[in-house]
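May I ask you for just one protein sequence along with its backbone structure tokens in two labelled lines?

_____
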Amino acid sequence: MYIGRFLVVGPDVGAYRVSSRSFPNRTISRRDDDTLTVGPTADAPETDNPYVAYNCVRVTDAGAVLGNGSHVDPVAEKLAMGYPARDALATALLSLDYEKDDYDTPRIAGVVGDESAYVGIVRRDALLVHEVSEPTLVATYEKDTPEAYEFDATDAEAAAREVLDAEFEHAVCAAGVVRDGDGFSLASLDA
């Protein structure tokens, strides 16, 4: 089954996977200690598609943000300003809305916070933000309502590996983030 890009968020762990039929030549690189960025590989054909490159993980003092597009940055900025995770997600997702591409691709995001975890999605017909107490998946297609997901990872690389190896089609690359003491550890893997 093809569910597009997806993320899994639990109380102390998060993971994000790029799955793509149209733009498979992408990788996730670490920009600094607190940011993972999706971008084209060296051999990727040139494109003017604005949805191909973006920060997919950003860590703040208030939590780690995961997502499938440019909305990751405003969610992280609002968290850093002191917004509760629920409000940071709802505000950014509502403001940026779903992607205006040929598929009306939803925007998905999650926060692994200090005291709670949330997932959110904005699609053509709804904006949903859910607090989660167990690993929860939300995807751009087919599984576009948050649902419980069996997820056993306890470190960032294992989190990335678990979503990269999940039984969904067209895996490209993945990121993992895990609460590690007072901070977070990050990892990324290519298919």
